Amino acid sequence: MSRTARLGPNRAQVVFALRVVVAALAALAISQYFRLPMPLWAVLTAIIVSQISVGRSLKATIDYLTGTLGGALYGGAIAVLVPHAGEGALLGVVAAAVAPLALIAAMKPGMTVAPITAVIVILVPTITHVSPLASAIDRVIEVALGGGAGFVVSFLVLPSNAHRLVIEAACRTLDQVARAFAELLNGLGEGLDHEALHRIQDHIGQAMVQLGAIGEEAERERAARLTTGPDTRPLVRTLLRLRHDMVMIGRVAGAPLPAPLLARLRPALNPVQGAASEYLRACGAALLVRRGPPPLDAVVRTLAAYAAEIALLQAEGLTSKLPGEAAERFFALGFALQQIRLNCGDLGERVAEWAEAPKPARPIVADGLAD
Length: 371
Known about the structure:
single chain; mainly alpha; Methane Monooxygenase Hydroxylase, Chain G, domain 1; elongated; disordered N terminus
């Protein structure tokens, strides 16, 4: 077991805290070595750009340096070109510097630090009695030093690869989908109220938002050649399709299915629920250890049995007697289960890609879920 693995479930947070401390101390030490006038900005920058993953640190560093350079150039130019000896003139200069940069920051979040930098460049000379040009140059140097220290520490000191974080987020998402699938199918009998449906869907939605954000960081790492891991986008898309399957089933579960129909479906639905939920969790576990996908046979077999039961119901004429709204939800459930089967097959292929294993052969079964 690795040293970081012994830290338990809060490993990433503990390692992140350690990197922040090292980055701050490194920035301070380098600032003192070069005798920078205000080491504070270098230390603060190192802390700000130190993020939980290398990909996020890279983006924070680029954004912070870009915003600082833009704010220093514009703020320095305003301070040099516009006289501001009195208090009123100083207020005008600050307003002239902040207004356009704040507008740019509102349109481009990566430039958020630009108006702050401009204000520092303008006001620091009133405190330290240096020229505006020297203040702008010092600010850029301090931020560049702090940003460089923060990124290098993030890359070298127990680096947290975003690809690993993607796997962990995908595993959490698959667990949420498995729980939602079981809860939604269990709710077909009495119907789930809006509060319960929103709670189920919100949990999956939050997991997907986190996964998408981490996936962007991982792709940023790949683009910068900081990692050679697989493309994260196919995995994210597959999980998003599974999330959409849960939305479809949620619409079905918003009202109870007719009791006689559900009594016939339940013996076939329960095995589907168990097999699919187990498969989703097993795929998450396989991703964590970079192992090949679990077999899909149980999912295919139980869904085939469900399709056979539906064919029998149709042959007996029971489905033709359903009210219009109940019939819509019945056929929507069949379509959603059909999509789950396809998306579980896609998920197995994605797990195989991350395990660098041969892609699993897809079982061939005839369609027919509530057709």
